[in-house]
Protein 1
Amino acid sequence: MVHSVIPAPRAAERAVATPRAHDRMRALDGLRILAALSVCLYHYAGRSSTGEFWGGSPKELFPGLSSAAAYGCLGVQLFFVISGFVICMSSWGKSLGHFFRSRVSRLYPAYWVAILLTTAACVVLPSVSEPLRLNEILVNFTMLQQPMGVDRVLGVCWTLWVEARFYLLFALFVVWKGVTYRRVVVFCCLWTVAGVLARVADNPLADEIVMRDHAPFFIGGLALYLIHRHGSDLLLWGIVGVSWALGQRYSTSALWHPDSAHVYIERSPYVILAVVTFAFGSVAAVALGGLRWANWRWLTVAGALTYPFYLVHEHLGWFAISVLHRKFHLGHWPTLAATVCGMLLLAWLIHRLVEKPLGPWMRRSMETQAARLKSS
């Protein structure tokens, strides 16, 4: 009955249903690195707690940058919209097993290395940050530390738990039976309704499963990929519009008050709205082809660095800032530039030495094992 009210894409829309040129995907890579750098600046210059690593207030060291960096945490919302778009794209025509193997081989290698590097830094310089206990570190390797109530080695990995739950929901309700236009639309509509009902129920377990505050960004990204693949229609833009409205409400209510966000300024609700609108609008521009001019090859490299950079930049960046600025008395601007560049270089090394060889090897190994089990 639900399927009967959802029109299939028209024949004219099917004509554009094949993935379009790679230049559009390079624009997505550019948005990824922009989101990662905005989160990075938030951690380095937009939070009051960062002052302990600088040995002084970032508000005084970076008076202009600090005010803008306070909004950098909204880069996470852009990440989530992009994730909805990319996951829908990459899972189209793929089996559930392929989806599982691609996510595991994509996420874990760089994540494990980031945990090892951060733990090693804590052991070497406990005055900056003390290492967790061994039992806590071992749980962190599973990426299940949050539901287990264990402290995180990487502060940013809370977003990975959000992403993992999105993957699970999408796999169970869409990928399992095969990704189609109708299944994705039904999933988006039902997830939106579930998020609203979860807020009314105010049940912690329901919130954990449905992710009422983060769901609108993923849902918006899913609908935007359908627009990219099948063309515009009123239903899809309606899903995007509702997701934008719910997403900006969550972002504003969560980030408006400075005391709970550890920032120096009272964030403007209008700026928050503008940044969330940019997150949806920029991915919409990719979906519609408005950013196909962003076809520079370096964007592909930048996109590849985004995930390892995101993992290592926070804690290892604080170590670098503490050493360069407080121990070697390097100026605050050179320290900031050196730290960002150093984390990008480290991300490139992780990508080249860990992700490129280990990710494909893991995927091939799991495929071989799956084939053996299927034939046995």
Protein 2
Amino acid sequence: MKPVRTLAEALGTGVLVLDGGLSNQLEAQGCDLSDALWSARLLADGPEQIEAAHAAYVRAGARVLITSSYQATFEGFARRGVDRDAAARLLARSVELARAAAAGVGEEVWVAGSVGPYGAMLADGSEYRGRYGLSVRELEAFHRPRIEALAAAEPDVLALETVPDVTEAEALLRAVEGCGVPVWLSYTVEGGRTRAGQDLAEAFAVAAGNDRVVAVGVNCCDPEEAGPAVELAVAVTGKPAVVYPNSGERWDAGARGWRGGVAFDPARAADWAAAGARLIGGCCRVGPATISALGPSTAAGGGAGGDGG
């Protein structure tokens, strides 16, 4: 069902469970994601698969679904011969599919329109480095059309996610001005700093005092980074934290495979919630089985799990 409460209102009453990695669930469903558009290709070629992936997370207890628009951009679609009007419709479809997946649930489910970083469009891993050599103004100009298209589809929030550096965070916060939709800001981090090597406290500070930002935190990072980042985000901004790390495995680009062991422990969610996290889920390689374990953990640490009520 479409939520009665705003996301900000829900965060004031407890913890909401986010979904997990969309791409790994799509792969589990047999989808081929070996494409520069990644899961966004399925907006055109297999929308039913995206809806099914969202539905799997709803069944697992997720009450916030992040759309399949992370790597969906006008520029990326143009390279595939998709014109701007058609691309805008595909961006809107990403919101519609998440809404449809939540339609049969007798609880509130919020939809977060994913706004990935500039590097996601390049499909070369640069979202994990940042510092693209573009100015705040140039990055704002890149992001604004997609944000406007997503906002027009009326998601409950925009997820400004996997942001690698402060320059892009500043550009994104400028780009969402006037869009009419609240946002969360989530950095990808390593070693307690942004992926670009910047001080994390300074990075979080760009969102302090911005009433449009309902939560600040980290995603697409090692689970070991999550706890300290949550504490810092809350201390710097006074806002609820959002946290959804990866499984702990690392992508080997040369071998095109995942390496290392799984370090995501749902039991840690209680500590994240106690530190002020109110949006808790998973990113790459975190599937429905793990998300299903987050509800009880978050309830133990920070109030209501599952539906935030």
Protein 3
Amino acid sequence: MRRLFPVTDQTVPTASGGRAGDPDDREWSLAELATAYAYPEPSAGGQRVPWLRANMVSTLDGAAQHDGKSQPISNATDMRIFGTLRALADVVVVGAETVRQEGYRPARARAEFAAARTAAGQAPAPAIAVVTASLDLDFSLPLFASPLVPTLVLTGAAAAAERVAEAEKAGARVVIAGDGMGVDPGRAVRALAELGHTRLLTEGGPRLLGQLVAAGVLDELCVTVSPMLTAGDAQRIAGGPSVPVPQRFALVSLLEEEGFLYGRYQRT
């Protein structure tokens, strides 16, 4: 993997056409990836404000999935970054449809990140927070029945009481983050922060990411551009109604390996 941006002495071409200290043939360590994707430091007073980042993958022609899953357009390095971003997060926010389609399982503790998570005051693994209006979920799945950290269910105040009770019976913690059936994105971020989860990561799906974008609560987008073309009618990484004015994000870093681009953008 090599860094294309920001430009450093390792990214500037040399007179011979190569690159000074070119790390193309070297696999980055997990520690290096963790540094490259570190969350913002707390404020001067030590206060850590919520920071919501998204991690998505897209083909050259804008498809976020192939045959309903993201795995066919991903690669091994994308999955290493995926795992690193999870290891840095307090909580992973995901939509119910993605849970069903991708067969979500609980996040696992990883020995490589254990010391760093302990030092940061984090649980051994991030919690999974499922956003759902209907609570139409199989609560017998390992995500709910046997997580290392209890799974959260984000829903609205008007959610069916019997489904809420079933979720709680399974061991999930139900968090009300909306006045009606659905979830208000801004309220969800605040509710998670009140639980001590300020390093937030969402892995979509596209409908949830679209809602977060429309609500103006997304701080950062980590996107892998896969050098593939799929055509078809697959969803983009963010769906739903368009925003009145396009939101501008700034490029923070850009990595490359075997044609895959790993970009990190933050809200300006």
Protein 4
Amino acid sequence: MRLRYGEMRGRLMLRIGVEERRTRLGRRHRLLSSCHAADPVEAAAAMVALHATDPATVHLSVAARVPGSDVLGTERALYDDRTLIRMLGMRRTVFVVPTPFAPIVQAACTDDIAVKQRKLLVKHLTESGVGPDTDASGKWLRAVEESAATALTLRGSATAQELSADEPRLRTRLNLAAGKAYAAQPYVTSRVLFQLSAEGRIVRGRPLGTWLSGQHHWSPAEDWLPGGLGDKPAAEEARVTLARAWLSTFGPGTAADLQWWSGWTAGQTKKALTAVEAIAVDLDGQVGYVLPGDEAPEVPVEPWVAFLPTLDPTPMGWKDRDWYLGEHKARLFDNTGNIGPTIWADGRIVGGWGQPESGEVRFQLLEDVGRETTQLIEAEAARWTKWLSGVRVTPRFRAPLEKQLSQS
């Protein structure tokens, strides 16, 4: 019986158990050797989006799914071919998505974020004395934004420092939390560029340093997309498309999972699930959803292991993580909910990894996985040590086990 969203109360539903969910994860997230992605764009599309808050994560997430890839290949897709784009998206987080999909994310998530962030920035400007009232601060912000955007267009590509030289008002200081122990007076530069980015007008380009650098050149959005990110569908239509993509990759999942992942309201989530005609299923007592026609079980897969980086999109795809995380949260997450580097075996997390100063990949298993799986994990650790070639990746968000392994 196919029960759509909103029709499940008091009725029988198809059960999808943990093992089936783990099988789907391995195949759909391109972590099986028989299902690896062909290139960085395919890897990103398979995951809907790749987390990019930590700049190293994009490259490591691609390498986990495209074993023959290297940093240069991912940079080529990002900065030369521009088939991938780095942008603000779900939950006010920076992601890398296939360029044609960027307008969907912009309309489904980023536009709402931009409205909220503008109000907050104008409030901070007013409190910092930039204008006598909100209206004046808002006009000041618009003027500075237009000037900075024009300067960027003339340059073609620029750093924040270069744009500040062109538009000195970007060096205006905010006065945040005045009188508090954590008071700060940062330049408004990053906030203005963040706002222009959130509104889809400018794009983060090449890093200033290596692929580990968190600072980037900026470019006009039109350089990545004809017409820029302003050429996008209506918000409700975009949310339906994004919900469909999420269910294809992460389904089955609960409404709470989708709401958390997307950053939507409960009402927006409900409308999107209704519009895609999501089918209700039983997730061991929880109501989950799959796309119509996606109820059939997956074909069994071969044993597999994977090393995934900090904030990889696989562990960050659901709010409820017990079915693949088990009791390992305290060792693998930091205090604000960011997951560190993890080791996976057959669809569940079994350990973590890190790098000491010498650069090799070290790991620790958090449960007994048997001799054959341990051998696969040892081989994968050796592969990652070779791939990194002595480059030491220190995650921006440090989990307890990663810290331990990096200091040993």
